[in-house]
């Protein structure tokens, strides 16, 4: 059964990518001429359709709570623990508004996937080049300051079922420098869906959106020294509940 599900997920993913290539190319062009904001919602809805379709195929038992804490508009920095590759699918399915995320530069060379990451508002980061990495982060800050939203994973890598890993000190800069509202996200069980056995299988998955943290009400010192701990504590509490 797992082999069938795995085949269906890959077939569905390829089908969606191929069917919507014309829309993706159009959005890519519009982005270059400054009209990306007019296509972001449509592109996000397509991505959400794909993500929810994948979840249905996996037949995972989903538990989702706290979606009422997601601001419908304005600058938002979603900050999540990173269990596995299934996390992005969960975010696309349930955040409910367009968002970008920072992906490793290697994904920029994957056909179709690179296009969809770009038109969804994603950015590619070269972690081995500090100057380029800072440039990428600054681009993310500008996106948020314009009223957009970004998703970040402060652990910097997937935990793969090992529990919550240490947060990287500079990971929260998108939020601290943009004064965005921070919505912590706690994910559990997503590693079991695919990566544990490299086959798609049903598993109980829990997704919790925590109460937002309003950074504009915090002093510069509080944002620098306390925000990361606040986010981590919120995620830890949600995972333990």
What does this structure look like?
The protein has 241 residues and is an alpha/beta fold. The protein has 9 helices and 8 strands. The protein has helices at 2-19, 21-32, 40-58, 86-94, 113-119, 130-145, 173-178, 220-225, 227-240; strands at residues 61-65, 76-80, 100-104, 123-125, 149-152, 181-188, 204-209, 213-214. β3, α5 and β4 (123-125) form a beta-alpha-beta unit. The mean pLDDT is 86.
Defining traits:
8 strands; Glycerol-3-phosphate (1)-acyltransferase; 241 residues; 9 helices; 8-stranded mixed β-sheet; alpha/beta; single chain
Give a short synopsis of this structure.
By secondary structure, the protein is an alpha/beta fold. The chain contains nine helices and eight strands. Helices cover 44% and strands 16% of the residues.
Which consecutive residue ranges, at least 5 long each, have pLDDT under 50? none
List SSEs in N-to-C order: HHHEEHEHEHEHEEEHH
CATH domain topology: Glycerol-3-phosphate (1)-acyltransferase
Q: Going by CATH, what is the homologous superfamily? A: Glycerol-3-phosphate (1)-acyltransferase
Q: Which term fits the overall shape?
A: globular
Number of strands: 8
Describe the secondary-structure layout:
Blueprint: H1 2-19, H2 21-32, H3 40-58, E1 61-65, E2 76-80, H4 86-94, E3 100-104, H5 113-119, E4 123-125, H6 130-145, E5 149-152, H7 173-178, E6 181-188, E7 204-209, E8 213-214, H8 220-225, H9 227-240
Helix pairs in contact: 1-3, 2-5, 3-4
